[in-house]
Amino acid sequence: MAERPLSPHVTVYKWAYTMTLSILHRISGIALFGALIVMIVWLMAVARGPLSYAEAMSTLASAPFKCLIAIALLALCYHFFNGLRHLAWDIGLGFERAQARRSAVIVVIVTLLAFAICIYYLARSGVGAA
Predict the structure, then answer these.
(1) Cα three-residue angle 40-82-124, rounded to 5 degrees
(2) In angstroms, rounded to a whole number, what is the distance separating the alpha carbons of residues 115 and 71?
């Protein structure tokens, strides 16, 4: 059997911002799946009763889990705004190099702003305070 060529891989192409954003979109999707599992565990603890809920909250209110929750929130913001960018592409908008570069910068800036606002309001309201 003749050897077939390998499909292009990241090592074949010159690194570009679009590759970075695409990889980050996939990573953020995986992070959101992990956050969904944690949320399901939390909901199961709520359904089991007050003792189970208190035990789950003592774990979720710890500093390491607060960091993971912040990472999940950042992933949610990025995945949402980059998803909107992909929807625009699906209808044929923003394919020109300058437009794609501009939308990439906008996604990153809006993601960071939304994340900062969410963290501010979460910290201000004392959610998860031990």
Answers:
(1) 60
(2) 10
**104/38 Cα distance (integer angstroms):** 30
Neighbours of 22 (CB within 10 A): 13
CB half-sphere exposure, 68, CA atoms < 13 A: 16
Q: Tokens 């970075």 label which residue?
A: 20
Alpha-helix runs per DSSP H in 1-130: 17-48, 50-60, 63-90, 97-125
What pTM did the predictor assign?
0.83
**48-76 tens-digit pLDDT:** 999 999 999 999 999 999 999 999 999 99
Q: How far, in Å, CA of 130 to CA of 32, rounded?
A: 24
For residue 34, the one-letter residue type is G
Neighbours of 3 (CB within 10 A): 5
Map out the domains of the chain as residue ranges. Answer: 17-125
CA gap 96, 89 in Å, rounded: 10
Class of domain 17-125: mainly alpha
Contact predicate 17/101, CB 8 Å: yes
